[in-house]
Amino acid sequence: MTYSKITILFKSSSKPPYFIGSQLRGAFGYALKKVTCINPSFTCDGCFATSSCLYHEFYEAKNETHKFRFDFILGQEFYEFNFYLFNDACMKLPYVVSALHMMLTQVGLGKDKITYKEFDMFINDENAFVNSQLKIPSNFIKEFETPKYFSNVKIKFVTPLRIKKENRFVRDDNLELNDIVNSIYQRQLQILGKPQKKFPYEIKGEIVHKQLQYKELTRQSNRQKTTMNLGGMIGEMEIKNIDEKSYHVLKLGEILACGKSTVFGLGKIEIEEMK
After folding, report:
1. Contact 154, 271 (CB under 8 A)
2. Does the structure show a pLDDT above 70 at 200?
3. Nearest Cα to 186, choosing from 256, 233, 272?
4. pTM of this prediction?
5. CA separation for the pair 134, 182 (Å, rounded)
6. Inter-residue contact 119 to 9 (CB < 8 Å)
């Protein structure tokens, strides 16, 4: 699994929304279309270039696994977020960087379309501004490396996790280790373009503590003129004696995220070692 990470941070005159995912995805989509669209009509319906258009791939393609996601925490005092690209989408990083730059400097954020001239940008934690000029590193694609194994871990659900069991989104603490591991594993297969299959190893681990709650979140869809529910589970779960294969999948989940609507920044998890 390969990935690229772009990090952006800046201060704004007003506090960012509690949940910045909807705002960022909308503004980025508009900027990405401006950067990539070659159709004089600027419309996607019947366009001759949809098969090679990054905007269409990220925003318009139906029944496709999106190979990107926003990543942040809730309730920030200032803007700080990551943008992840996965697998072959990493090759489109220059277009994404251009769109993010346009999003901040020309398109703007929020109802007032506030633009920003001063911000920091890092690509895989390397400063992307050299002598005030935007510079993309020659090697901007990273390979996920197998992490050191720890048998006792805490899973922190940082942004709402939208995960289904028996065709219903989980809204209580009826969330198990196998639900999380399988969700991440299936997302990995989808991004790699491989057929869906069950996780091929026995998932082992004892949940010794759960502190979970359902977090309500909604967003207004300007395109569909409806209110969308983005609520899910937040909190933490402590697990002892987790098997090594499942542990590695959880660590991959820190990059891929877990569950539904990850492009909005949902399903962010963090894995901590426990003694």
Report:
1. yes
2. yes
3. 256
4. 0.95
5. 39
6. yes
